[in-house]
């Protein structure tokens, strides 16, 4: 398993995303993922499955420090009065004293960046999290985040072969920040793509496996594919026995011209 080393953290480059998994299914899939070899698990307050994820980790028979666990503070809890209580509730549900990474899930136009970043740094000082980061923050907001002095290790954003994240990726590389790719297979839209299919046939791999491999061959990129089917866990993990050529990578890079964004809620920031 490839590891990303950044600012003292060592993180498995491929993790399990749990978006849209209701609590009991999240417990089952997380337990199956850990049994399959996953050691990087991602959840969030708004997913309402922290309890299930926490139960799976607690009962896995694996030392807590062998699991890299991420959760995210919901945009409705970013104000100073709500922030730390929400994190404390997350820790209770997750049945742990700390998470490895705590993220701001989405920015909130009604809460200043310096207010929520101050609270995020306070959560780190209190030992609620080892590392901090953000999610869904375009470069203009990242400028404000970094101006607070926060030492963030990642920005978790939508990233897959069909979206153009060149500006954001370049910014993150220049600032020594990793990119964590959610919706790394564009919520299934990579399936049937002729380019990904033809490249996959060279290696006896699927469009999904090619997409994940493309992500992880990029410097400083992690991916957290979500699945609701335990049998897919092994497939997603089975991407470390082949390597895409420079020509393959370039062909996949060219797909970004379509710039298909699959996650764009009404409260989203102004994207790059």
UniProtKB/TrEMBL annotation:
The keyword Oxidoreductase applies. CDD domains: AKR_AKR3F3. One of its GO terms (biological process) is methylglyoxal catabolic process. Transmembrane segments: none annotated. Residues 14-256 form the NADP-dependent oxidoreductase domain. Keywords: NADP, Oxidoreductase. One of its GO terms (molecular function) is methylglyoxal reductase (NADPH) (acetol producing) activity. Substrate binds at residue 105. The active site is at 47 (proton donor). The keyword NADP applies. The record marks 72 as: Lowers pKa of active site Tyr. It catalyses: hydroxyacetone + NADP(+) = methylglyoxal + NADPH + H(+). It holds the Pfam family Aldo_ket_red. Belongs to the aldo/keto reductase family. This is Diketogulonate reductase-like aldo/keto reductase. It comes from Pontibacter ramchanderi.
């Amino acid at each position: 398993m490839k590891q990303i080393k950044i600012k003292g953290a060592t993180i498995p480059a491929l993790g399990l995303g749990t978006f849209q998994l209701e609590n009991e299914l999240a417990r089952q899939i997380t337990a199956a993922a850990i049994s399959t070899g996953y050691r990087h698990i991602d959840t969030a307050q708004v997913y309402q499955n922290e309890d299930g994820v926490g139960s799976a980790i607690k009962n896995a028979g694996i030392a807590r420090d062998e699991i890299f666990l991420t959760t995210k503070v919901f945009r409705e809890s970013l104000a100073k009065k709500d922030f730390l209580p929400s994190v404390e509730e997350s820790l209770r549900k997750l049945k742990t004293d700390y998470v490895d990474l705590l993220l701001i899930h989405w920015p909130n136009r009604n809460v200043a960046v310096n207010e929520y970043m101050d609270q995020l740094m306070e959560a780190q000082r209190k030992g609620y999290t080892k590392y901090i980061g953000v999610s869904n923050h375009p470069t203009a907001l990242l400028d404000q985040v970094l101006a607070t002095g926060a030492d963030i290790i990642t920005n978790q954003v939508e990233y897959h072969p069909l979206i153009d994240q060149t500006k954001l990726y370049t910014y993150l590389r220049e600032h020594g920040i990793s990119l964590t790719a959610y919706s790394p297979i564009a919520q299934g839209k990579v399936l049937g793509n002729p380019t990904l299919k033809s490249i996959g046939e060279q290696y006896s791999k699927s469009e999904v496996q090619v997409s994940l491999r493309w992500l992880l061959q990029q410097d400083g990129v992690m991916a957290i594919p979500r699945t609701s089917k335990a049998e897919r866990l092994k497939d997603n993990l089975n991407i470390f026995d082949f390597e895409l050529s420079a020509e393959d990578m370039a062909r996949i890079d060219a797909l970004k011209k379509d710039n298909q964004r699959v996650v764009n809620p009404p409260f989203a920031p102004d994207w790059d």
